[in-house]
Amino acid sequence: MQFNDLLTVSVRQVIRHRRRYLGVVLAIALGVAGFINILTMSREVKKNFNEDLDLIGGVTVIRLSFDNTRSYQPQWFRSATLAALQRLKGVKELSLTAVKGGATNYRGQQYGFSLLAVDDGYWGVRSFWAQTGNLFGPGAVAGRKRECVLGAELAKHVFGSLDIRGRLLEINNEIYWVSGVLGGVTDSGAANSAFIPLTTGEDRLAGPLLPDRLYLRCQTWDDVSRVAAAIPAVVKSTQSPEELNVEVSWEGLKRVLQLAWWIQFLIYLATSATFILGGVGIWNVMMAAVVTRTREIGLKKAMGAEDRDILAQFLTEALCLSMGAALLGGLLGRIMTEILGHMIHSRPPENLFFLGLGLGFLFAVLVGVGAGLYPSLRASRMEVVTAIRYE
Amino acid sequence: MNNNLTSAGGTNGALIHISNLTKNYQTDAGAIQVLKSVNLQIYPGEIVAVMGPSGSGKSTLLFILGIFISPTQGDYILGGADVLRLDRDAQAEFRRNRVGFVFQSCDLLEHSTVYENLEYPLIYAGVDRRDRPARITSALEMVNLGHRIHHSSNQLSGGERQRVAVARALVNQPQFILADEPTGQLDRSHGHQIMDHFDEIVKSGQTSVLVVTHDPEMAARCNRICSIKDGILYEQ
User: Which residue segment(s) compose the domain that B32 sits in?
Assistant: First the structure.
């Protein structure tokens, strides 16, 4: 039997019995679509979680600092180091910070606090947002303006209110304009701190200001361990890594990784279940087809079909079903990818989609051959007389 | 195909030569002898009728001649070849190239067109796709059904279905046609039409037909009539 005849005959049979096969085709198509989406979109979704969810986002932040209290020669992060760290695979963004002691005298009351001189990327890296007012941006940093943001606790202590935008505050004998109050998941340290632009700090604060702290946000939680492990060598390549501390929220990261693993496992399980269900469906409909088409098999053998012709026909029908389902799944997968991409404002690399499509097709073929083989073998080994006499 | 065949001589020009053919079936109650030392020769251009009551062994003989089952013992030479010594695939090849079948129950493939029904034997015989329409049309015209070529088999009457079955048996231009009660489910007039087609087919002198029938009137139209009783074949 020639291949084009085999294909024509099998496709014709599948189309004629399409109603019988609809459920199976849909099951496999959904499996393929799900698989494509997991493969294509999972990294984009993780990135999105990382950007939007403070709690999960927090575990992707690595804190680097030099312990200058133990060092004879004070260290700070050089621009070459920042550039090298930014080039590390898996690093999303970083923010440079310097800390000084801060003090204010407001209406006769003295208050002490931590004063952090930060760049404009600080808020994004640490997932902070403005509870009231605004957090100063690139304009304030570039313009070396005397603006400040207060932690919520400090704002309450000093002003007795959080609605303090536009108020003036004296910090270390300089007057600053308050632009807002810090929000987000903040620890007590941040809540009791004041934040000024790093450039302003360099100009206004007494004594040398050493930017010896660096916050580095990874693209996803999967990148954290690798990036953390690579940091000392990267720093060493540009400056002395003496007394460098690399801090990762390992406990939180472990929990997030566990949670993500379970979610991913369950999605894969559901996808596998759909594939298996599709396979069982193909097995079932093909077994039923062998029974209902027993006379047809007998007739074809009487017309001269060899065992391998019957085997090839039933197997090709099973393959047509699974390939057709994979094609439909690919289409559904594309639509779902587009919708999801639109929802999370992110577009995965196109080659990832084609990889998913290819693997989806491969699985579908394996399901088709695996599930269709036994019924096809059974059909091919049928005795002509038994088949012809079958009622 | 002929490479696989064992040449057998001594058939006196017979297309079909069976000798001492015996078939036993094993049952719980012991062996049942369905055919007992059957001898039969069929010559090219002959129509031979085989008659007999139900259970006499007619169908078993037909199935052996169609190479669907093997006899317990005996020889079967078809067109000079000892077909019983062929392997399973070679027997299938022999069936599709040398033998045509017409079954009692108008066995057409359901939900397929007349064209598709006739195309299958050609597909299995490896006939080129471009040559098929002419051969199918020619076979259908022999049974006066050329106009039904693209109709679904489900749309045909009983007589038409049986004529399509005859055309399908003819389409590969076989040497030997086996017909199992081809007129059994037809009225007299349609039955005679089928027999007319068989007459037409054997006219060339190349093809022979063996018809299993219960109907003496149809049997009377054949060149020879054999009857089977209790597994023994008698020639009338």
Answer: 2-235
Six-digit token pair at B52?
Answer: 């007999």
- Is there a contact between A302 and B68 if contact means CB atoms under 8 Å apart? yes
CA of B111, closest CA in chain A: separation in Å? 8
Nearest to A296 by CA among A321, A281, A317: A317
Contact A307 B88 (CB under 8 A): yes
One-letter amino acid at A269 equals L
Q: Is the dihedral of CA A157, A161, A162, A167 positive or negative?
A: negative
Residue-wise pLDDT for B75-126, tens only, equals 999 888 888 888 888 888 888 888 888 887 657 888 889 999 999 999 998 8
Contact residues for B53 (Cβ-Cβ < 8 A; gap 6+): B229
State how many domains chain B has: 1
Point out which residues pair with A176 in neighbouring strands: A169
Return d(Cα B69, Cα A385) in angstroms, integer: 8
Q: Which of B107, B117, B123 to mutate to test the interface with A (most CBs of A within 10 A)?
A: B123
For residue B74, give every residue at least 6 positions away whose Cβ sits within 8 Å of its Cβ, in sequence order, or none.
Answer: B18, B19, B20, B21, B22, B37, B38
Compute, in degrees rounded to 10, the torsion defined by CA atoms B154, B156, B159, B163: -90
Which amino acid, one-letter code, is at A66? F
What's the ipTM?
0.84
**pTM value?**
0.67
In A136-256, where do the E strands start and end?
A: 147-150, 168-171, 174-183, 193-197, 213-218, 244-248
Rounded to the nearest 5 degrees, what angle is found at the Cα of B185, between the Cα atoms of B181 and B189?
100
Q: Which residues of B touch A12 (CB under 8 A)?
A: 116
Nearest CA in chain B to A305: B124
User: Cα–Cα distance between A202 and A142 in angstroms, integer?
Assistant: 12
- CATH number for the domain spanning B186: value is 3.40.50.300
Residue identified by tokens 């979610």 is A263
